[in-house]
Structure formats: C-alpha cells, structure tokens
Amino acid sequence: xxxxxxxxxxxxxxxxxxxxxxxxxxxxxxxxxxxxxxxxxxxxxxxxxxxxxxxxxxxxxxxxxxxxxxxxxxxxxxxxxxxxxxxxxxxxxxxxxxxxxxxxxxxxxxxxxxxxxxxxxxxxxxxxxxxxxxxxxxxxx
Length: 141
What we know:
Blueprint: H1 2-14, H2 17-40, H3 42-72, H4 77-96, H5 100-115, H6 123-127
C-alpha cells in the first residue's frame, strides 16, 4: 500500500508514464493481496487454532491430575475412569469444533482407529508420554 501511495504521488507530481505503470501494477497487487487475505481469513484460522490449543492444554493438565490422583490413591479406580471418560468426551467436543482442515484429519484418524478395532496401547507406549513418577515401569507391580 505504501508503494502504491508513493508511486501514485510521484506520478501525480511528475506525470511520468513509468510512475503511472508502477502505481497501477502495485495497486493491482495490493487488491490481489487483499482478496487473498479476505478469502482465506488467516487471522480467523490462527485464532481458532490458538483456542483449540488452549483447550487441549487444559485437557492435558486435567488428565495428568487424574493420573496423579490415581497414583497417589486420592481417588479410586471407578472415579478415575469416570473422570477419564468425561475428559475424552470433552476432547471429542474440542476436535468437533476445530478448524475445518483439522476436523477432516481428526475424522480420518477416528475412522482408522475404529476400523483397527480400537487397540489398546501397551503400558510401555503410554509410559513414553508420562513423567517418570507416573510411569508404570517405575512402580513395583
């Protein structure tokens, strides 16, 4: 936009055909950039991703708290399962309202898991994502 303004000002002051052409080309590029920005709404997509990330982080922290409470014996197994199921439902709701491209990816992953019979991860795989204090391999059987 600044290039358009400067070249248009130079064209108005000098009357040079070169400044007029540069002004027209830069003006056209500015319109194209504006249309791309309006069409794809990059700001809205970025805000939607930020909102999803914030919600996912909260779910993560709540899940870690459930695991810690189970490890410490602060809650019983049934309460832990109930809280886990609630977190899974909330996680599903977050993914349903995720930005469109990610929603399609989530749906494809969900179909793949369902078609694979929803296999459970072994404890060793789960331990890779947990802090040492919560890993099953670190605790006596």
